[in-house]
Amino acid sequence: MDQYDDVCLEVFLKKQAQLFSEEVASNLEEAEAFLEDCMAVVCKNLKEVREYFEESGMDAAGLDNQELEDASEVFPLPDGRYLVVEG
Fold first, then answer.
1. Residue 1: what pLDDT?
2. CA 19, 24, 26, 28 torsion-angle sign
3. Which of 13, 37, 67, 85 is deepest in the core (most CB within 10 A)?
4. Paired residues of 76 in beta bridges
5. CA separation, residue 21 to residues 15, 24, 63, 64, 70 (Å)
6. What does the alpha-carbon distance between residue 73 and residue 23 come to, in Å, rounded to a whole number?
7. Mean of the pLDDT values across residues 27-54?
8. Is the pTM of the predicted complex or chain greater than 0.90?
């Protein structure tokens, strides 16, 4: 499964502490395995992030875009996409 490209994996490795109190991956292979295990999702934009949260049962209607982007589960990617990892 090549859902997670190098950009996703590198951002997750660098910023995993925003969601987890201890390191869950130390290299790209471990990061990919972890993201696959927890079924992380790559969204094209914040609209998709909002839809994903709502489909998952989270009430995201009261959150503005900045609050949504600042959620600990949301990892903004440099190309405008978002990686959503549920801890």
1. 36
2. negative
3. 85
4. 82
5. 11, 9, 25, 26, 17
6. 15
7. 96
8. yes
3-state secondary structure the chain: CCCCCHHHHHHHHHHHHHCCCCCCCCCHHHHHHHHHHCCCEEECCHHHHHHHHHHCCCCCCCCCHHHHHHCCCEEECCCCCEEECCC
Mean pLDDT of the chain: 93
pLDDT(71) > 50:
yes
What residue type is 27 in one-letter code? N
Distance between CA atoms of residues 27 and 22, nearest Å: 14
Strand bridging mode 82-84 / 74-76: antiparallel
One-letter amino acid at 35 equals L
